[in-house]
Write a structure and sequence with these properties.
118 residues, mainly alpha, single chain
Length: 118
């Protein structure tokens, strides 16, 4: 004898099949979400690498120029500015001396060529 209060065997099989179909759909959705998550992680990693490279480049520029972006040049106080100015003045003097020596050499070469030509 069958208990009349419970579901029929056909209904139970139908419910089991519906649950299986629902499970398959959920598994497909999960696979799609995992694939999307993997793409997103890859994209984020690439963006993080580009950001790290840009930050490294900015840091390199800051180290080379002393520019901080907030207050212009990181002066480090008046003494540091005086040292930089003195260093630049010495470099300018060296370059002017080099120019003078090069002009003298050029003049001597030109004179020698003229002398040899005559």
């Amino acid at each position: 004898e069958r208990d009349v209060r419970g579901p029929l065997p056909e209904e139970t099989m139908e419910n089991i099949q519906k649950l299986r179909n629902t499970l398959k759909c959920l598994q497909k959705e999960q696979a799609q979400h995992e694939a999307e998550l993997a793409r997103t992680r890859t994209s984020l990693q690439q963006k993080e690498e580009r950001i790290a490279a840009a930050l490294a480049e900015i840091e390199e520029i800051r180290n080379a120029t002393g520019y901080t972006g907030r207050n212009g040049i990181d002066r480090g106080g008046p003494k540091a500015l005086e040292n930089k100015i003195g260093e630049l003045q010495r470099r300018v003097a060296e370059l002017q001396e080099e120019q003078k020596v090069n002009r003298d050499l050029q003049r001597k070469k030109t004179q020698l060529i003229e002398d040899l030509s005559n």
